[in-house]
Amino acid sequence: MLLKWGITFLFTVLATAYAASENRASVILVPGLYHEPTAFNKVVGVLGKSHYKRIFPINLPSVGSLKGRKDDVAAVRTVLIKELEEGRDVVLVGNSYGGTVISDAVEGLKKHSKALSRSESIAGRSPRPRGQILGLIYLSGFLPYIQDVLHPELKPDIRSTAPAYMRFTDDGKIYPDGDPNNPPQLLFYNDLSEKEANFWTRKLHFSSVDSAAANSTYIPYTGDFRCLYVIGKKDNAVPEAFARTWIEQEGAKFEVDYLDAGHIPMLGQPEKVARIIRGVAEGKERRY
Ligand SMILES: *[C@@H]1O[C@H](CO)[C@@H](O)[C@H](O)[C@H]1NC(C)=O
User: Fold this and answer.
1) What is the pLDDT of residues 6-36, one digit of tens each?
2) Are 134 and 90 in contact (CB under 8 A)?
3) 163-167, 190-194, 195-199: which range is least confident on average?
4) How much is the pLDDT for 2?
5) Per-residue burial over 97-129, b = 16 or more CB atoms within 10 Å of its CB, e = otherwise
6) Residue 214 CB–ligand 1 contact under 6 Å
C-alpha cells in the first residue's frame, strides 16, 4: 500500500514538473559590450532548477569583431521569431548595451506584445498569435533615448558623449579600460571577490564601435511592451542617476526594480536576477 502511494506520489511530482517545464516561457539573454554569453551561466543554472528549459544566451557577433548592431539584432531576432512562431512565450533580458539590442529586436513585433493583448482583445481585433512577448528586462540597460530615434540627425556622436571608461581606437574598436581610476574590476565587477573580478576581466573582448554607435529605429518602452528597468545600487558604469536619464524621459513607461549589485548583476546576484526574470515570465504584476 505504502509503495503504491509512493509511486503515485512520485508520478504526480514528475508529471507536475514536466507540465511546468512545458509551460515555461523561453528566455533570451543578451550580454553587453565586451562580454561573452557565459556571463549568464549562473542565471541559466538557477532558471534550470525552476524547470526553464528554453534558455538562449546570445553570443553577440560584435564582441571581439568589427561586426555591427545589425548583426547583433539579427542574432536575437532569429531565436525570438522561431520561438514565437512555434507558439512559445518569450522574455527578453538585456544587460547594458544588450538592452539596446533587445529593444531593436522587437521592432515590428507589437502584435505579439502581452502588454497589449487585453485592450486589443476588448477592441475585438483579429485573434492574437499564440507566442507572446511577455516583457523586456533591462539589467543596467544602456539604451537609446526617445529623442535619438525621433531625431537621429541631432544625436551626438558616441565618441563625444561616452563616459571616460570607453576607449575608442581608430580602427573601429572599443575597450572598457579608458579610465585608469575605474578599471573593469571596479567598473563591472566591484561586487565580486577579487579573484572572480580578475577572472571575468581576463575574459573581456573589445567590441565594435559600430555596435555601440549605430542609430536605433525603435523605442519599445513607451507602452508597446512591458519593460522593467533594474538598477544596480553599486553600479559604477550606469549608476542610478544615469539610469534615471532613461527612466524619467517624458513618455517612458518603465517598471523599476533595484538590486544590491554592480553593472553585471547576473554575476553578483544571479539568484535575484533569476527571480526577476521569473516574475515577468510568470506574469507577476509589480506595483509602484
Ligand atoms: C544616424 O542618423 C543620422 C541622421 O540620419 C546620420 O547623420 C548619422 O550618420 C547616423 N549615425 C550612424 C552612426 O549611422
Assistant:
1) 767 666 666 666 666 668 999 999 999 999 9
2) yes
3) 163-167
4) 63
5) bbbbbbbbbbeebbebbbbbeeeeeeeeeeeee
6) yes
> CB of 238 within 8 A of CB of 140?
yes
**What does residue 53 show for φ and ψ, rounded to 5 degrees?**
-115, -30
Q: Considering only CA atoms, which residue is closest to atom 12 of ligand 1?
A: 214
Nearest Cα to 139, choosing from 21, 24, 284, 275? Answer: 275
**Measured from the CB, is residue 150 less than 6 Å from ligand 1?**
no
CA nearest 91: which of 217, 228, 233? 228
What is the number of helices (H) and of strands (E) in the chain? 13, 9
- Protein residue with least CA distance to atom 6, ligand 1: 153
Q: Strand 173-175 vs strand 133-139: parallel, antiparallel, or unpaired?
A: unpaired
Q: What is the pTM of this model?
A: 0.91
Q: Tell whether ligand 1 has an atom less than 6 A from the beta carbon of residue 215.
A: yes
Give the position of cell 569583431.
65
Nearest protein Cα to ligand 1, atom 13: 214
Strands 173-175 and 167-168: antiparallel
CB distance 282 to 226 below 8 Å: no
